[in-house]
Design goal:
little secondary structure; 3 helices; elongated; disordered N terminus
């Protein structure tokens, strides 16, 4: 009987201890530390940039959750540095990398172009997909051949016409309203200005070696001021407000002409383009087959887009195109058989 009483008392004591070790809402208290707190949305967890091999010439740190450019001082031989898709807010820590020829900072959080004066051998600079509002800080980069600044918040073209070797300038998807300040860029071969707010083609006279001009998705209503671009091979002016194909007399080397998604009613003024291979005119207002007949002089024409024009509603649309233009290898998105 005494043993039963002792056991009952022991059980009661255990129950009391258990109750004392629970919280008010019934959950057990335990002495282990609480789990780490997850940072609230918007607070980015970043990693420190750590370099192991001091003799490396190429360093790829894409998608590394890096928040700051640092610890690169020992890399005296570094030639190519890739820092895409990180959380970098400021260009810094590059002063000792005088041999650098390529720097990629695509898709970060950079607001100001700065601290690049020491990179006198830089040939390729990619600052696309950042938060840059103004082109500055490039005065010393006289060996630059390719400059990428697409998808920023740039409102004005400036501080780029001092590059004696520049071949590619990418300024697409910004807030530019006027083509200007490109004088002196004699070596420029590729100019990308698509998806801006440009209303007029102008100030391109010095770009005599230009081969690619991209102006799609702007507010242009007329093809003009292209007479000095005699080496142009690819012209993209889709998604604008054009009504007429005109002022292309000097573009005899053109291979690709993109005029899609405009308001063009007739195909004209392209018969002199003996090298024309691709003509994109989908989503326009071409209604007469005489426009197609006109293209018989373009013997190298291999691809044509005319879908979503009135002419494309003809049941024999594809057959007529192929019979009229036997050089065609592709009609709209479909290869010819």
């Amino acid at each position: 009987m005494a043993d039963n009483q002792d056991a009952s008392m022991a059980n009661n004591e255990l129950d009391m201890i258990h109750k004392m070790e629970t919280t008010e809402d019934g959950r057990e208290n335990n002495s282990s530390p609480p789990p780490p707190v997850t940072p609230p949305p918007g607070e980015e967890s970043t990693q420190e940039l750590i370099v192991v091999n001091e003799n490396t010439e190429i360093l790829d740190l894409n998608h590394g959750r890096i928040g700051k450019i640092e610890n690169l001082e020992p890399l005296r031989n570094l030639e190519r540095l890739y820092l895409r898709w990180n959380f970098i807010k400021k260009i810094e820590g590059l002063d000792t990398l005088s041999k650098l020829v390529e720097l990629e900072l695509y898709d970060n959080q950079i607001v100001v172009i700065e601290n690049l004066d020491s990179l006198v051998n830089l040939e390729i600079l990619d600052l696309s997909f950042n938060r840059i509002k103004e082109i500055t800080g490039l005065e010393n980069l006289l060996n630059l051949r390719k400059l990428y600044l697409s998808s920023n918040k740039i409102t004005e073209i400036k501080n780029v016409n001092h590059f004696p070797k520049l071949e590619t300038l990418e300024l697409g998807d910004n807030r530019i309203r006027e083509i200007k300040n490109l004088d002196g860029l004699k070596t420029l071969k590729e100019l990308y200005l698509g998806k801006n707010k440009i209303t007029k083609i102008q100030n391109l006279d010095d770009l005599s070696n230009l081969e690619i001009l991209v102006l799609q998705s702007n507010r242009i209503t007329k093809l003009e001021n292209l007479e000095h671009l005699t080496n142009l091979e690819h012209l993209y002016v889709s998604e604008n407000g054009l009504t007429t194909i005109e002022n292309l007399e000097n573009q005899v080397k053109l291979q690709t002409l993109d005029l899609a998604v405009n308001r063009i009613t007739a195909i004209e003024n392209v018969s002199h383009m003996s090298d024309l291979e691709e003509l994109w005119l989908n989503d326009n207002q071409v209604s007469e087959w005489s426009s197609v007949d006109y293209l018989q002089q373009n013997k190298k024409l291999a691809t044509i887009y005319l879908e979503r024009n009135p002419i494309a509603s003809d049941p024999a649309y594809r057959r007529k195109l192929k019979l009229t233009l036997p050089s065609l290898q592709q009609i709209d998105a479909t290869l010819c058989r």
